[in-house]
Design a protein that fits this description.
It is found in: Secreted. By secondary structure, the chain is α+β, with helices and mostly antiparallel strands. The protein contains 8 helices and 22 strands. The protein has 2 domains: 2-26 and 213-474, Bactericidal permeability-increasing protein, domain 2 (Super Roll), CATH 3.15.20; 36-209, Bactericidal permeability-increasing protein, domain 1 (Super Roll). 26% of the residues lie in helices and 45% in strands. α2 (33-52) packs across α4. The longest helix has 32 residues, at 178-209. The chain is rod-shaped. The model is unreliable at 1-21 (pLDDT under 50). Bound molecules: 2-acetamido-2-deoxy-beta-D-glucopyranose (NAG) (5 copies).
Length: 475
């Protein structure tokens, strides 16, 4: 007994430690009640179509009335209409979702036959099934590939009333034993509905969830991991789908040297879906490209507009640094801009900034095309980042707001870096950033299911994450 207790205790502790050690997501998709209601509406029309296709098998039996045996059969039954006027989806905290349908009704047409020793009759009938209610639980989980799963549980179905109306010769015969027929038909139809409901969930909803792009390839270097970190937690207000939200190097993945912060999405039920994009996602991007040596760019004279005063040649620069034109008269120059460390994005309420440290190495291009180093500058910058959502992608735009320079090393003797202010400001804000912005305008895909479009998008920088809110359109 004591051993069992100890084992149970150890196991609970392990679970508890496991839970507190759980990795924060880098990306959260929050579905609100409004979003679930929209999904329910879309789902109801699919379910209605599926239920209308139910095949009701022929149905026969016999009964005795005043020592006379009657055999009856009902056949060629066709569902003329299957209406689901009222439905509701509710969040069941820590469990999942519950779909309840009430007041549904069915209209069925068919043929009847009654046969006995003394008389027989046949004709048509129409059947009204009323007060049909269906209740089904939806359990949410995640599979080995990190995609969301949904499975039906506890389906129940109840019909409160079946009304049969018969026509044809001796139709009163049916009325004589309609009670037993009503009951049998009710049982029959009740038994057909839950299998169709659970089958629709497995064959229509589950495949849709499986379209979540768990790996979104960005370019030849990087991809985003959008796999689920675990089964989606459900509270009374919302359903959160927690994704890893991490850039990784396609060729060789290494864990980033920092972890995702806790995201606390506000309880704002105004829109259908909210996306919380952690600064972790952006910072893993910086880490991946930096480690792959991809944050490096060159500026050459042909990139500088004709009308800009400072050209990348030693005559032009020689006006600012006279030593330069003396040592290397009339030669072209080239700049290499790189970041010695991965740039970090800071997300605060109200604004997004990144303050990358950049290095500019200047070279002169010798007549035999080799590069001779001239000087190395250290730049501390502040760049404002504007983000928006365009066709389901996060797009960005950078704008330089501050730059400070330091001369780290010179091969042409000492000079005051202040003389380079205008030129360097121009190169960064008018040549480098537009190039980066062109890449950022292509954007990064949000993890959306197939056929989902976002409307009414709002964006709100919050502490450590960007909050996007939107309404959804399916189709
Ligand atoms: C250079 O010319 C372009 C138009 O061709 C103009 O937009 C830009 O402001 C000019 N730049 C300078 C520094 O005069
Ligand atoms: C250097 O740039 C100036 C404009 O600032 C231009 O007049 C000159 O021809 C250029 N020299 C070379 C070698 O390209
Ligand atoms: C960004 O927002 C913070 C907090 O509101 C503020 O302190 C800071 O000055 C802002 N930075 C810029 C560049 O606007
Ligand atoms: C290019 O010219 C420079 C200076 O004249 C010389 O030091 C260097 O060795 C030359 N490089 C090649 C590859 O010829
Ligand atoms: C470059 O600037 C950063 C930030 O000001 C500083 O931490 C770093 O030491 C500087 N590097 C050199 C080589 O001066």
């Amino acid at each position: 007994m004591e051993l069992v207790c100890r084992l149970t205790l150890a196991f609970s502790l392990a679970l508890f430690v496991g839970a507190t050690n759980a990795v924060n997501p880098g990306f959260v998709v929050r579905l609100t009640q409004k979003g679930l209601d929209y999904a329910r509406q879309e789902g109801m029309s699919v379910l209605q179509q599926e239920l209308s296709k139910i095949h009701l098998p022929d149905f026969s039996g016999s009964t005795k009335k005043q020592h006379i045996k009657f055999k009856y059969s009902f056949n060629s039954m066709v569902i003329r209409s299957f209406q689901l006027p009222t439905s509701q989806i509710s969040l069941v905290p820590n469990v999942g979702l519950k779909l309840s349908i009430s007041g549904a009704f069915i209209q069925v047409d068919g043929k009847w036959k009654v046969h006995s020793k003394i008389l027989s009759g046949k004709g048509n009938f129409d059947l009204k099934v009323e007060g049909l209610s269906i209740s089904v639980g939806l359990q949410l989980g995640s599979d080995a590939s990190g995609r969301p799963t949904i499975s039906p549980s506890d389906c129940s179905c109840h019909i409160s009333d079946v009304k049969i109306h018969v026509s044809g010769k001796f139709s009163w015969l049916v009325d004589v034993f309609h009670k037993s027929i009503d009951n049998a038909l009710r049982k029959d139809i009740e038994g057909k509905i839950c299998p169709v409901v659970t089958q629709s969930i497995s064959s229509k909803l589950q495949p849709l969830l499986q379209t979540l792009p768990v790996t979104a390839k960005i370019d030849s270097v990087a991809a985003i991991d959008y796999s689920l970190t675990g089964p989606p937690p459900v509270t009374a207000q919302s359903l959160d789908v927690q994704l890893k939200g991490e850039f990784f190097n396609i060729a060789h993945r290494t864990p980033p040297p920092f972890s995702p912060p806790t995201l606390s999405l506000p309880a704002d039920p105004g829109l259908m879906v909210y996306f919380g994009v952690s600064d972790y996602l952006f910072n893993t991007a910086g880490f991946v490209y930096q480690s792959a040596g991809k944050i490096e760019s060159y500026i050459t004279d042909d990139m500088i507009p004709k009308n800009f005063s400072v050209h990348l040649n030693t005559s032009s620069f020689g006006i600012l640094i006279p030593m330069l034109s003396k040592m290397y008269p009339n030669m072209l120059m080239k700049l290499k801009i790189s970041t010695p460390s991965a740039p970090f994005l800071t997300i605060e309420p109200g604004n997004l900034t990144t303050s990358p440290i950049m290095e500019i190495q200047a070279y002169v291009i010798l007549p035999n095309s080799t590069l001779a180093p001239l000087f190395l500058l250290n730049l501390t910058t502040t760049i404002m980042v504007k983000v928006s959502v365009n066709s389901g992608r996060i797009v960005g735009d950078l704008e330089l707001s501050r730059i400070e320079m330091e001369l780290v090393h010179s091969d042409i003797g000492p000079f005051s870096v202040g003389v380079l202010n205008t030129a360097v400001n121009y190169y960064i804000s008018s040549i480098l950033l537009p190039e980066v912005n062109e890449i950022l305008q292509r954007g990064y895909p949000l993890p959306l299911l197939d056929h989902i479009q976002l409307t009414d998008v709002i964006i709100k920088p919050s502490e450590h994450f960007l909050l996007f809110g939107a309404n959804v359109q399916y189709g």
